[in-house]
Amino acid sequence: MDSILKVKVVPNGPLMLNGICELEKLDGSTDKREGKTYLCRCGHSDNKPYCDGMHRKVEFQG
Prior knowledge:
Low-confidence stretches: none
Radius of gyration: 12 Å
Order of helices and strands: EEEH
Strand content: 35-45%
Strand order of the largest sheet: 1-2-3
Helix content: under 10%
């Protein structure tokens, strides 16, 4: 897999990360992800910081 982390803004949706990333949570624990990871931009996800599709329900524009 490519070592460059690519970030794409999905119209009216999340940020799509593609590559290897390590996310540090508020409690200090980390999640390591490979491949595609979607991060919430609308603020309505019940699985923050990850997207759960709520942007569609709340008709997020951005």
